[in-house]
Amino acid sequence: MTQFSVVHPSSADVDGVRIHFRVAGPEDGPVLLLIHGYPEMGITWRKVVAPLTAAGFRLVMPDLRGAGGSARPLTGYDKSTLAADLAGVLDSLGIKAPAAVVGHDIGAMVAFAFARRFPERTPRLAILDSVIPGTDMFDEVSRDGTKVWHFHFHQAPDLPEALTQGREAIYLERYYHDMAFNPSAIEEEAFEFYVRHFSQPGGMRAGFELYRSFAQDVADNRAWQEQQGPLKMPLLALAGSGGRYATRIGPMLEEMAQSVSVTVIPNAGHWLAEENPEAVADALATFASQENAQ
């Protein structure tokens, strides 16, 4: 993909698990840790690489365990463990604290867990079009089997793997299409890249494990909230104007954080960084630069 021509791939061994990641931008620039969701991987950020690196940021874009070029172990898909994986990636690069930790979809749940586990390494947090386990909104959304049917389907043992084996392209195409304001924003080359990786042995199973860990994620976040209180770092919420969370993501995050601002991304559904990368890059650069100026 041409947008990734300036990106340098690498990997780190984190407690015996290989985590693949890509780095772009000046080595001395403020760091943005960009965490993808499901069913995607680090290339979800490909369209924001150019504007964010041009603004002087260094980008670290991991593939979560189970995705892309990372290992696919049988366990460790709770968001706290995934957050620890990414702390290990930053350690391998000698990065103590990014300018901001950014997560989309499932990656937003990981970013939230990262901020909880490593608040000293999270000066600012950005949550992109997601619900956070442990909030009232997560409980409400999870009960609605029509809008988030995949929450339930993915948690069923073994059945999702059996039904999607050999049909990965059919399943993923429907997934991307139904949650998009502009489905063509995920171009054919990117779609084929996603399908190729999720079709590898264990690829779909690893993705489903992200959902099977939700009960643990809820318990972890509620325990953190009880022990630590709300997050104290500034938090930016981004939601697509054509998505389902534009009016609700702010109140949800106010359950868990002291300082929340919301930006609605126009002409976008769920896949914000792919549907309107210019607006996403501008919002993230402005947000992260506020911290740098302090």
TrEMBL record:
One of its GO terms (molecular function) is hydrolase activity. Pfam families: Abhydrolase_1. The keyword Hydrolase applies. InterPro entries: AB_hydrolase_1 (IPR000073), AB_hydrolase_fold (IPR029058), Epox_hydrolase-like (IPR000639). Keywords: Hydrolase. Residues 30-277 form the AB hydrolase-1 domain. This is Alpha/beta hydrolase. It comes from Sphingobium yanoikuyae.
